[in-house]
Amino acid sequence: MAFTLPDLPYAFDALEPHIDARTMEIHHGKHHNGYTNNLNNAIAGTPLENETIENILKGVSQHGPGVRNNGGGYYNHCLFWEVMSPDGGGEPSGDLAAAIDEKFGSFDDFKDAFSRAGATQFGSGWAWLLVDKSGQLAVTNTPNQDNPVMDVTNVQGTPILGMDVWEHAYYLNYQNRRADYIAAFFNVVNWQEVARRFAAAK
Ligand code: MN
């Protein structure tokens, strides 16, 4: 069974002015679509066709770079669209807010750690907030399309928030100013969705 490109849960221009419509259109329709098609080509005729994307990524060390890069690209962007919203921004509440305060000291301290993870990822990659194997929140970054689900990653667990820091995610609007894009990203974070994923991952 082939993987399919999910529809964006909002219009291309819904995240403006923080993320521009043209970037969203190319990012979803070209980049994510490309990862999806290339993943399907990479697993065609193999037993991986019958696996969930999570199971494929958990054992990704056993597969070639086509599965790692495109499987990661498929999964990461599916998550990315959902953890953003035109109604996003602000701060989390409830259990997630308490867990962030306990782990990082405060929401602002978390924001600093997550922003630093994105800013210091050399070249292309992602910043993550995840629930690690011990059930604790953690912040990490990964190169290329790697993610914390993969068995090749230093900090493994269930990602609940991901931020794409590939240039294709921000270059049209922000050029080389990755820090400005990262600051703007916090205006569109869908904390309700992140909280839902936190509750499911614990
Ligand atoms: Mn991307």
In short:
The chain is mostly helical and 202 residues long.
Structure description:
- This protein is mainly α.
- It has helices at residues 21-43, 53-58, 65-82, 94-104, 107-119, 171-174, 178-185, 191-201; strands at 125-132, 137-143, 157-164.
- It has a three-stranded antiparallel sheet.
- β1 (125-132) and β2 form a beta hairpin.
- The longest helix is centred in the first third of the chain and has 23 residues, at 21-43.
- It is globular.
- The protein starts with 20 loop residues before the first helix and ends with a helix.
- The mean pLDDT is 97.
- Manganese (II) ion binds at residues 27, 31, 77, 164, 166, 168-169.
- The site of manganese (II) ion has 7 residues, from α1.
Oligomer: single chain
- Averaging pLDDT over every residue, what do you get? 97
Distance between the termini: 29 Å
What is the β-strand count?
3
Number of helices: 8
Specify the biggest β-sheet: 3 strands, antiparallel
What small molecules does this complex bind?
A: manganese (II) ion
Poorly predicted ranges (pLDDT <50, ≥5 residues)?
none
What would you call the shape? globular
The helix-strand sequence is HHHHHEEEHHH
Briefly note the structural class of the backbone. mainly alpha
Main sheet: which strands, in order across? Answer: 2-1-3
The percentage of residues in β strands lies in 5-15%
Structural Rg: 16 Å
